[in-house]
């Protein structure tokens, strides 16, 4: 992963390096390009949309213009691709070659469908699983693409629910963990939520081979939209809610599922901390080396770090419009701000460590440029 020095250089140098120069300098000097480290959807001051990548030397590797605002992405295990998805109700996903920083292809969702902004690969890198909406029927589904055959569609798995959002692969390699938001949308109505009075959110476990839903866990309130999640190497899931009820209410905003035991719970945060999250969580990222998870809350201008095994709140850190997050090093996290900043967080420091600023608005999620195993 990117070192502290590397991130400092990224923040200072990345903004001034164009995609063309970053991709061509190594070739001109006869050196291979450095490995890609971070990918994110970004927007500029004029509201134009891009997919941006930063390499391990801190240079902007590419900035690819796209028609629709994008959301999340996923790296291909042991492969050359990172896929970035249009945010709901977008209709394209973009396959980027990480070796040369070029857009390899864009895949349309097809008539009657839109993406929700998230996907994940199978362990062998062949199959890509993507959350989607059939907006004629409002059926939520996971679509399966064959990455080895030009991202050909090979299957649709019906989730028996509405509004699937983020999904992750369980460490067992066979189970998909899906956040089912419960919110009905349609491209004709942009991002208007059409069914807030009859939402049925859930956290799902899905057999990735058969498409069978093997477990369904329900939030404590029907308007707690289950949106984003991560899973630890030992199979503990932390999911984040966005509450669609009255803004003065403060229901729980986190869910915890121990997949080894099947125990589902909603960790209790101190009331003042819960109120400060403003009923909205964005990214969830879990450390691969310590029992820590970070939760970003851009409306509350803060991130919190919890012990994912106990649900205990360990730290609150103020960061304006914080959203994107990834694990960093042994016990830390890197987060980005919609104002352009990049910061490092740790459980033993209540201050975000700034590492410069880019002239872009980072979107809600960060994607590692290279696959990080569980």
From TrEMBL:
<keyword id="KW-0732">Signal</keyword>
<dbReference type="InterPro" id="IPR008311">
    <property type="entry name" value="UCP028101"/>
</dbReference>
<dbReference type="Pfam" id="PF07433">
    <property type="entry name" value="DUF1513"/>
</dbReference>
<dbReference type="InterPro" id="IPR006311">
    <property type="entry name" value="TAT_signal"/>
</dbReference>
<dbReference type="InterPro" id="IPR015943">
    <property type="entry name" value="WD40/YVTN_repeat-like_dom_sf"/>
</dbReference>
<protein>
    <recommendedName>
        <fullName>DUF1513 domain-containing protein</fullName>
    </recommendedName>
</protein>
<feature type="signal peptide">
    <location>
        <begin position="1"/>
        <end position="22"/>
    </location>
</feature>
<dbReference type="InterPro" id="IPR011044">
    <property type="entry name" value="Quino_amine_DH_bsu"/>
</dbReference>
């Amino acid at each position: 992963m990117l070192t502290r020095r590397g991130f400092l250089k990224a923040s200072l140098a990345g903004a001034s390096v164009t995609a063309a120069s970053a991709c061509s300098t190594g070739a001109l000097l006869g050196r291979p390009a450095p490995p890609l480290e971070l990918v994110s959807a970004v927007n500029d001051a004029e509201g134009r949309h891009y997919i941006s990548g930063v390499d391990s030397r801190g240079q902007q590797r590419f900035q690819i213009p796209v028609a629709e605002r994008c959301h999340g992405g996923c790296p291909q295990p042991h492969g050359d691709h990172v896929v970035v998805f249009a945010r709901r109700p977008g209709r394209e996903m973009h396959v980027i070659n990480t070796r040369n920083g070029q857009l390899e292809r864009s895949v349309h969702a097809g008539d009657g469908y839109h993406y929700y902004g998230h996907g994940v690969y199978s362990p062998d890198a062949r199959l890509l699983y993507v959350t989607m909406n059939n907006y004629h029927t409002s059926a939520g589904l996971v679509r399966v693409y064959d990455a080895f055959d030009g991202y050909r569609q090979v299957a649709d798995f019906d989730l028996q629910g509405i509004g699937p959002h983020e999904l992750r692969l369980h460490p067992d390699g066979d189970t998909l963990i899906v956040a089912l938001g419960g919110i009905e949308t349609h491209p004709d109505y942009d991002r208007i939520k059409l069914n807030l009075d009859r939402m049925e959110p859930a956290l799902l476990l899905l057999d990735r081979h058969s498409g069978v839903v093997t477990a369904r866990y329900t939030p404590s309130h029907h308007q707690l939209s289950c949106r984003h999640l991560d899973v630890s190497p030992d199979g503990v899931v932390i999911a984040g809610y966005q509450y669609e009820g009255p803004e003065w209410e403060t229901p729980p905003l986190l869910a915890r599922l121990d997949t080894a035991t099947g125990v589902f719970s909603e960790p209790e945060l101190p009331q003042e901390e819960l109120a400060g999250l403003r009923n909205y969580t964005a990214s969830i990222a879990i450390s691969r080396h310590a029992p820590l998870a970070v939760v970003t809350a851009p409306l509350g201008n803060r991130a919190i770090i919890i012990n994912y095994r106990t649900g205990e709140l360990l730290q609150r850190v103020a960061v304006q419009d914080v959203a994107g997050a990834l694990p960093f090093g042994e016990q830390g996290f890197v987060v980005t701000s919609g104002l352009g900043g990049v910061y490092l967080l740790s459980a033993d420091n209540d201050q975000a460590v700034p590492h410069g600023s880019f002239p872009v608005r980072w979107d809600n999620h960060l994607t590692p440029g290279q696959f990080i195993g569980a």
